[in-house]
Design a protein that fits this description.
Blueprint (H helix, E strand, L loop, with lengths): L21 H11 L3 E6 L8 E7 L4 E7 L7 H14 L3 H4 L3 E6 L7 E6 L10 H12 L27 H6 L1 H8 L5 H20 L8 E4 L8 E3 L4 E3 L6 E4 L1 H13 L5 H10 L7 H16 L13 H18 L15
Antiparallel strand pairs: 1-2, 2-3, 3-5, 4-5, 6-9, 7-8
Helix pairs in contact: 7-10, 8-9, 8-10, 8-11, 10-11
């Protein structure tokens, strides 16, 4: 099993446990009913949000994550949306770690932490089968339809269901297109490839506005690093983008991410999911969603690496490459030229 692109060794810049104000520590201890004996910084996802694995005096462990002074401005809003999902969706009790509560220093630019029971995660237990089994559980649940906003009106998620920007921006903005082409080993060759395929990419992308396909509870940012694999159970975490909409979005995200990480080809994972009782997505709808999502990554992956997020562009570039390869195998576009850093 080999990833398409080598993962950077650097990790996100996160606050230390010693940065937590005493008042926040007291709130956490009151909530869990025990004193904190020790804590480690948690590195799992790709954000710079605070993350701590706290060991209590009883030996119990809890996980805390959230915003801190200096965090990105949308962090508090994201955590608030995630807390709402945990407090209103019963299905998350079955597919996510047990939620305990939220603590805050009362400053909108300060500390706000969600608290969950800690789940021991072993990445060596990750498999396509385990990912699919937990996805089937929440995608079969219908409760969220009357609770959550629709995907086409959810901030951040809505952009995947519009036919504008993305590949269209690269087509019409020469400066942006040059930056995109700089991600390839031979930019001139990549330029010719783009000229041959830009019409098809834009045409397929435009169809996302009228796409009608199976709908359900969407995670909205589904990657392997948002799954926890314990010995007997698997869990999905990080639910701030939860909404109701076309399941093709989550499936394109997770299956292309799994291809990028070496777990199999995207279209074969789609087929396996449908064959084992998961949502069956029409081939045309797969193509539409692939072009819309890849267009988003095509207009993100070339940008400068944020200082606090050293793995963000690697992840975006990896998923873009997997999506391009999948679309080529499906006959939507020609095979893409080699990207910088691509494993042979």
């Amino acid at each position: 099993m080999s990833a398409l692109l080598k993962e950077p060794e650097a990790r996100e810049k996160k606050p230390l446990f010693s940065d937590l104000p005493p008042a926040m520590l007291r709130q956490i201890e009151d909530m869990v009913g025990d004193k904190i004996a020790s804590s480690d910084v948690a590195f799992g996802g790709l954000s710079s949000s605070a993350g701590f694995i706290m060991t209590l005096q009883s030996g119990r462990r809890v996980f805390a994550k959230g915003t801190h002074p200096g965090e990105l401005s949308h962090g508090a809003k994201n955590l608030g949306q995630e807390v709402m999902a945990y407090e209103t969706l019963d299905i998350l009790r079955a597919v996510a770690p047990p939620y305990i509560g939220v603590v805050s220093d009362g400053d909108e630019d300060g500390w706000m932490l969600g608290i969950w029971d800690f789940v021991p995660h072993d990445p060596n237990l990750a498999s396509a089968q385990r990912v699919m089994e937990v996805m089937k559980r929440w995608q079969a649940d219908r409760e969220a339809q009357g609770i959550l906003p629709p995907a086409r009106k959810q901030v951040y998620i809505d952009q995947f269901f519009t036919g504008d920007k993305k590949w269209l921006r690269l087509r019409h903005d020469e400066g942006v297109r040059k930056k995109f082409l700089s991600m390839f080993a031979q930019p001139s060759l990549a330029g010719k490839w783009f000229e041959h395929n830009m019409v098809a990419l834009c045409q397929w992308q435009a169809r996302v506005e009228k796409m009608e396909t199976a709908e359900g509870l969407l995670h909205g940012d589904l990657r392997l690093d948002n799954f926890l694999f314990a010995l007997e159970r698997s869990f999905a975490v990080d639910w701030p983008n939860a909404c109701w909409g076309p399941l093709a979005l989550d499936l394109v995200f997770i299956f292309s991410n799994m291809e990028a990480m070496g777990y199999g080809q995207t279209e074969k994972l789609f087929d396996e999911y449908a064959q084992t009782g998961g949502a069956a997505i029409d081939p045309d709808d797969r193509a539409v969603m692939l072009t819309a999502v890849s267009g988003y990554f095509a207009d993100q992956a070339y940008r400068e690496v944020p200082e606090k997020l050293p793995r963000l562009r690697w992840m975006q570039k990896s998923m873009l490459l997997a999506q391009l390869k999948c679309m080529a195998r499906l006959g939507i576009i020609e095979s893409p030229p080699q990207m910088n850093g691509e494993n042979a």
